[in-house]
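User: I'm new to structure prediction. If I give you an amino acid sequence, what do you actually give back? Let's try with this one:
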Amino acid sequence: MTRRRDLSKLIGAGALVICAGLFCREQLLARPSSLPDTHRHARLPEGPRGPRLHLQNLQRTDEPPPGLAWRDASAAERKAASAAIQAQLEAFRLNDYPKAHLHLSSVLKREFPNIEAFRHLVQGLYPELAHFQSVQYGRARATTSGMRVDIVVTVTGRDGITTETAYDLVREGNTFLVNSIAGGITRERPPDFA
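Assistant: Good question. You get back a string of structure tokens that encode the predicted 3D arrangement of the chain. For your 194 residues, that looks like this:
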């Protein structure tokens, strides 16, 4: 009986060590590095919650994948990307995570097939997005093919905390879908916030 209890403790301790190792690995991979001058405009402030990683390949979101050429997004691309982000944010605000999940790229849907796990991720890592009060769209760029758009988004949560994130969207069919989010760094806290 004591062997079984000792084995259970050992397995539990091993699982804890693995989780701690994965957390440390993510923190090390998320350390900022210098960017080429052509992409300096997309760099987000450093902080405890940024930059984020691409889930599908663990590449940093502030470093463009090899071989992509960027240009300023057209008005139509900017409008379509902003509309996709706004629709997902509205679904978050209404606590409609099945609808918010529909705005994920096919890559992220494979990473997060479980809507409850997706809800937990958003509410845990991006509370200002989950409970946003206002949103402003900043600089947007697109690949020369128009298949990807990156756009800087400033979101204020209902708690008054403002964060800046960079959304990476991909075109699937005729729709832009969220492929990754980088940042989520608190920029200011109102003086009356307790």
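You can read the tokens as a compact description of the fold. Here is one thing that stands out. Residues 31-188 form a domain with the Nuclear Transport Factor 2; Chain: A, fold (CATH 3.10.450.50).
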